[in-house]
Design a protein that fits this description.
Elements: E1 3-4, E2 18-20, E3 25-29, E4 32-37, E5 41-43, E6 51-55, E7 63-73, E8 76-85, E9 88-97, E10 108-111, E11 118-121, E12 124-126, E13 137-142, E14 146-150, E15 153-158, E16 161-166, E17 172-175, E18 185-188, E19 191-194, E20 198-199, E21 202-207, E22 212-220, E23 233-236, E24 242-245, E25 248-249
Parallel strand pairs: 1-19
Antiparallel strand pairs: 2-5, 3-4, 3-11, 5-6, 6-10, 7-8, 8-9, 9-10, 11-12, 13-16, 14-15, 14-24, 16-17, 17-23, 18-21, 19-20, 21-22, 22-23, 24-25
Amino acid sequence: MATESILHPGLIVPVGHVEPVPRRIRGLINGRIVFDTRRALYVWEWRAYPQFSIPVADLVDGVLHDDGHAEPLGAGPAHRHTLHVGSEVREGAAWVWGDGAPQALHDTVRFEWEAMDSWFEEDEPVFVHPRSPYSRVDALRSDSTVRVELDGVVLADAATCVKLFETGLPTRYYLDRTHIHWARLRHSDTVTRCPYKGTTSSYWSFDSETASHEDIAWTYDFPTIHANRIAGMSAFYNEHVDLYIDGDLLPKPPDRPIP
């Protein structure tokens, strides 16, 4: 099974910006709570989305060992640390901010996302990276008609849809499964994860008489609560199909973001 992570564009925020996280944040390894804090900070090391920085005092389990290596990160210099949690060793798992980083980050640590087995905001799991407070997802029912064609073959024809508006991404048009010609599609093992919508359940490809088109459609069977209206529905990449909305051909976006 292929796994693909998502870099979400979101609203541009200045690199080095720091602000409080108004939520309880926890990280777990092997079922053990590594940190549990209500004092986390958002820190933008790059413009697209923030990372969490955790007060060192709020580590519950685990010990940080200085690797003796420092380098500048987006918000300033930081010292790399290895994390020990019981018998588990996660090398290079953490960065403790040093002199030259914003004052608010002093005595806090930014963990590599993959170093934790799971992350939680309050009691909800978080995937891929923290959700930016400046990005949002709106899933709205619509009576717009949607027809999907590729290489002259109709792949879907729907009288209604759910339009998903996500900061920084093209509008996606989610269709009920009964309006998609599944016999013309081929199932794919690709999986993508999104911090705003969750984990995809399935992807589909299409083989026409002239070309193979990989991973042009996907489904979220169990999306996050923010996007629950798309549960069990499927969408096609605007970038790779001919998408007709209310009879008009939609211009293709220039790039192909992950859904």
